[in-house]
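Field log, afternoon session.

UNIT: design team B
ACTIVITY: writing a sequence onto a fixed backbone
BACKBONE:
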């Protein structure tokens, strides 16, 4: 996926929930820094997972508080052998209105051996059987 499309996908998620808050320029700068350090597909998943974790909080964290939580989530996935992605592909699509870029996730999974490969593989196949 080209970098313009990747950035548009991220911008759609951020704009849909006004995640940048009042400090849009600082938020955008931090997001750009994350893009230089992490695959965009993982940043998308981190945005959605942090959004889901904060959904019942009022007010919803936005701006630098939100992007800092995204960065922490990415670092947890990078450093923890037990890291896993809790959001399923169908939940991701429901929250973002975007299709899952499973090819980018597979590439990210191959590049990032620290991720729990079961979480990505199981999520990508989107099993309906709760035993899987």
């Amino acid at each position: 996926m080209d970098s313009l499309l990747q950035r548009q996908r991220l911008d759609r998620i951020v704009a849909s929930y006004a995640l940048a808050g009042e400090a849009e320029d600082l938020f955008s700068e931090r997001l750009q820094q994350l893009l230089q350090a992490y695959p965009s597909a993982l940043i998308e998943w981190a945005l959605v997972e942090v959004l889901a974790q904060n959904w019942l909080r009022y007010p919803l964290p936005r701006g630098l508080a939100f992007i800092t939580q995204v960065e922490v989530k990415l670092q947890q996935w990078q450093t923890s052998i037990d890291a896993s992605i809790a959001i399923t592909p169908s939940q991701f699509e429901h929250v973002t209105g975007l299709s899952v870029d499973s090819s980018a996730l597979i590439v990210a999974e191959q590049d990032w051996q620290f991720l729990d490969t079961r979480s990505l593989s199981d999520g990508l196949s989107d099993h309906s059987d709760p035993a899987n």
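LOG NOTE: The chain has a mean pLDDT of 78.
NEXT ACTIVITY: expression trials, pending approval
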